[in-house]
Amino acid sequence: MASIKEYLTNDHRRCDDIFASMEEKANESLSAAKDITQEFIDATERHFQMEERVMFAEFEQKTGMTQGPTAMMRQEHTQMRSLMQQMIDAIEADDKDKFFGLTETLMILLQQHNMKEEQMLYTMAQQHLSADADRIVDMMDSIVPE
Hints:
By secondary structure, the chain is mostly helical. It has one domain: Up-down Bundle (Four Helix Bundle (Hemerythrin (Met), subunit A)), CATH 1.20.120. Helix content is 86%, strand content 0%. The chain has helices at residues 4-28, 30-63, 69-92, 96-129, 133-141. The protein starts with a helix and ends in a 5-residue tail after the last helix. The model has no long low-confidence stretch (mean pLDDT 95).
């Protein structure tokens, strides 16, 4: 089975691929991109919940660090959720300039966020949680977004 780091990093790539497809569709028209934008948002939200409800919780319980990297990642998730909602609003308003401005901002945030997770947090989680990695990956894999 994949390590926690591999599992979550692979899910980042899956979300990135959907993001790229979303931008391609949006170049055609925003109405054409509506479904794939929702698919991207759903995939990203599921990823956030795998982290927040499972990996972050396990990491915090094991290390006692609740105001460290996981707190920062949760704040960034909140920022990105807001941007994604604004993207939906831009589609509803058929405002292509606003949509692409938001996707540009979101892409930069996602790239920075994912790099911090992949290079620091996931490595720390792997060190502290490796004995429970199979159980944690199984739990993340079974997440159904709330």
